[in-house]
Amino acid sequence: MIAETICAAGSAAGLGVAAITAYRKRFLAATRIAAYSLIPLGLVLTGAVGWAVDTAFSPTAWVGFGLLGGAWALFSTTRAVERRSGGGRKERKAAGAAQREAVAPAASAPSLGRGGSRPSGRSAANPTSAGAGDDFSDIEAILKKHGI
Is this model's pTM higher than 0.85 or not? Predict the structure, then answer.
């Protein structure tokens, strides 16, 4: 009963402000204010305000909202874990196979962005020598270049 009275008073006050705004020759703003002020009265007449008040003070409704929130939390947690772990066993197996195929089996050494110049530690006779020592020779060449 109190909520309906407050909504009706708010609508009446809004219509009063709209009338003053229209008196000042601002008809577009007055129409917008009148539209906003009629919304609470419309909600009262449709019964939406009564439903909201009954829901707000009902312990059963709050238990229902709590259960919905818990279900949402469980769902979002399982989705986050599924994304982090990569899904099920079949999905992880397929992703691993796809990752192995994406890497070239005989990839060349990564370029350092020098436009074709070779590091000083590498021999010109054998530019594509592969192995673990080759990677360390690049690092040694860089360190020697900087005097370390």
Answer: no
Using CB atoms within 10 A of its CB, is residue 11 exposed (0-12), middle (13-18) or buried (19+)?
buried
CA-CA distance, 26 to 18, in Å (whole number)?
Answer: 9
Number of residues written out for the chain? 148
Please say whether the beta carbons of 141 and 125 come within 8 A.
Answer: no
Residue 140 DSSP one-character state: H
**Counting beta carbons within 10 angstroms of the beta carbon of residue 97, is it exposed (0 to 12), middle (13 to 18) or buried (19 or more)?**
exposed
CB 37 within 8 A of CB 14: yes
> Side chain identity at 107, as an amino acid letter?
A
Q: What is the pLDDT of residues 85-122, one digit of tens each?
A: 766 667 767 777 776 665 555 555 565 655 555 555 55
Q: Are 139 and 121 in contact (CB under 8 A)?
A: no
